[in-house]
Specification:
With 310 residues, the protein is α+β, with helices and mostly antiparallel strands. The protein is 30% helix and 25% strand. About 4% of the residues have low confidence.
Amino acid sequence: MSGLSVCFPGSWDQVVADLVEGGSTANVMAGGTDLLPSIYRRQLSPRRLISINRVKEARAIARRLDGLIIASGATLAALEEACLPPEAESMPKVAPGGIGPSVSGAPVTAWGVLSQAAGVVGSAQIRNRGTIGGNICNASPAADTIPPLLVLNASVRIVGPEGPRKLPISEFILGPGKTALASGEVLREILVPNTPPKFRALYIKFGRLRSMDLAVVGVAVGLVLSEKRTVDDVRIAVCAASPVPFRATTAEDVLRGSALTGEKVTVASRLVAQETRPITDVRASGEFRRELTQVLVQRAINTITGGAVS
């Protein structure tokens, strides 16, 4: 790390100015849980780190009438706490450790699915330091927070030398390690709109271990059922089974507006699996990931509906 300098701007405008001045040799740092190990392993060689930790509003999480605003420097631990749904007190807890799937509790209302995902990232130490902005901008195919943000129809606000701009989260991640950030731009905040009435959601992460492991596959499902158990709205998102986490819109279209039956769920979950482009690596084969995606989508819908799909 010889020759590396660190600056601590006090505003977003100064962050942008420092980024422009540093050019391609500058990196923004929040928690540093991904960035610093990459520098240590010589995968990155920045000359300047620009810490956002002294930007006053960089860690804020605010509830507004139209939704939730999450500053990019908000820690995953703070996000887990802030997005806890009203029913969290009575939710079953997932025991840490062990081998097998990490199922993030029971189906939840409002933004609780984001709390679930934040709560299964890494270890407690990582969550206390790592940030939502870092998890997004790292652009990992296995990023746990992206599927919930996709089913919540979230967007991001970016600031840069040309001014602010807003993008749907689905357009922000372009590939493994690649985002839509242009030179001199930085992710300022994530905007999460209010969820529809009766919206219930669940994030399921399957890993080799129940903690401190990347997802083999992660699935988030959001569902709104009518009194007659017709699907008024459905949102399905998957990570770790394609180069970029994605919304399974073809499968959603099959379910939306129809009665929720076991046959429909089977067809839709197969379609989700067909949309994946999984790789084979040390964690799992591509074939296993594709089959697992189908199983987790079915499991998520079945859990949300209380096993009432027939």
